[in-house]
Design a protein that fits this description.
By secondary structure, this protein is of the alpha/beta class. It has a single domain, classed as Nucleotidyltransferase, domain 5, CATH 3.30.420.10. The protein contains five helices and seven strands; from the N terminus they run βββαβαβααββα. Helix 1 runs parallel beside helix 2 and helix 4 packs across helix 5.
Length: about 170
């Protein structure tokens, strides 16, 4: 898989992270941020979010033509909202292109692959991903006159990088 075109994804209903790799080189980081439409029923808002994610994922797949899609597959939910988000994620993941092979990884595998720690924090994941690929288009903001990584925005893209690294262990 290292010499292939790969889209690695960290799925979520509100923040869908994607990392694009070509022959092991990070080509792009993408974050699809969906809106929470508060003035309509939650189910309608979820429907619009699912559509936004599907369209963005489909466009990236079409434009990039991956050989593999590596997806962190969510499992278990602590609430009905979590179950809805998981259902949307699994539904969109199921639309990966026919010409690509789907590589499934667990959240635990992602953390272990990127940091060596199955209980890594969000910040540890961001720091590890940035340490491996500092040239990527990471989101930054100014803090006390210094440019620093933005945690919330980078979290899902860092997890997508971790999914890619976990996917490298995949035996096709």
């Amino acid at each position: 898989m290292q010499s292939s075109r790969v889209i690695a994804i960290d799925p979520s209903l509100r923040n869908w992270g994607m990392a694009l790799f070509d022959s092991g080189k990070l080509v792009d980081l993408i974050l699809v941020e969906t809106k929470n439409r508060r003035k309509m029923p939650k189910s309608w808002s979820d429907l619009y979010a699912a559509r936004e994610i599907y369209e963005a994922f489909s466009e990236v797949c079409f434009r990039f033509s991956p050989d593999y899609v590596v997806a962190e597959i969510p499992y278990g939910a602590q609430s009905s909202r979590g179950a809805i988000a998981m259902g949307v994620a699994i539904g969109v993941i199921s639309t990966y292109p026919e010409y690509s092979e789907l590589v499934k990884v667990t959240p635990r595998e992602v953390k272990l692959a990127l940091t060596g720690n199955a209980n890594a924090t969000k910040q540890e994941m961001i720091d590890a991903a940035y340490g491996l690929y500092p040239e990527g288009p990471w989101r930054k903001h100014k803090l006390k006159g210094e440019m620093v990584l933005t945690q919330g925005s980078n979290q899902h893209m860092a997890d997508a990088v971790g999914a890619y690294i976990a996917g490298l262990n995949y035996d096709s």
